# Entry
Amino acid sequence: MDIDLKAIYNEFAETYDKNRGLFDMTQVFDSFYGLLHIKKGRLLDMGCGAGEPFPRFFIDRGWTVTGVDFSEQMLELAARYVPEMKTVFADMREVAFEPERFEAITATYSLFHIPRDDQTLLFNRFYRWLCPEGMTLFTYATREYTGSDEFDGYKEFMGHELYYSHKTPDELRTDLQTIGFIVESWDYRDIGGEIFLWVTVRKPAGG
Ligand SMILES: C[S@@+](CC[C@H](N)C(=O)[O-])C[C@H]1O[C@@H](n2cnc3c(N)ncnc32)[C@H](O)[C@@H]1O
# Structure
């Protein structure tokens, strides 16, 4: 699964480049930025792709950004468009950071490519890597996208069969709360005709 997905994203990079800025993400930015308790610091972006739109948005507001991605071609675009971003070429499941290293973590349109049990492992790591009051925003696939309450398989995207995985929204919420996160927002958004669940969670002050 990984090798194919990585090869496909390497191939997508050119198309991705042509479609840059096609969708208006203003609402997503404003909503997340408005919820942040800490307005400036260090952001980790998992599956950063070409560094847009999130890393660029945060860098323009004075944040230090680290992006992780396993596609060389996407990272080449990132080096061109967001040279200020520090990049880590790796599978996001294999990176490690010290505790409380980031004020915010984002994973937009990327986590749904990770098997659902690994997603839970990642949420645990996000919690550890976040400072108290730090926030995470991620995109989650649901029935609205895959057609099933829970899913683990392949779905066509731009002429390729891509791997997607998700639990039910209830299971997701339970996972996040069990880890210790406070759910701050839970929005189904239709962006470019694709409906995903956008979730913001916060690590509590004493967490
Ligand atoms: C749909 S793109 C999203 C890019 C960007 N986050 C955005 O919002 O436009 C998904 C990105 O996740 C990366 N990705 C998928 N699975 C990954 C993994 N296991 N480790 C690291 N990167 C991964 C892909 O290479 C690709 O760049």
Observations:
- The radius of gyration is 16 Å.
- The chain has seven helices and nine strands.
- The chain has one domain: 2-202.
- The pocket of S-adenosylmethionine is lined by residues 5, 9, 47-49, 68-71, 74, 91-93, 108-110, 113-114 (CB under 6 Å).
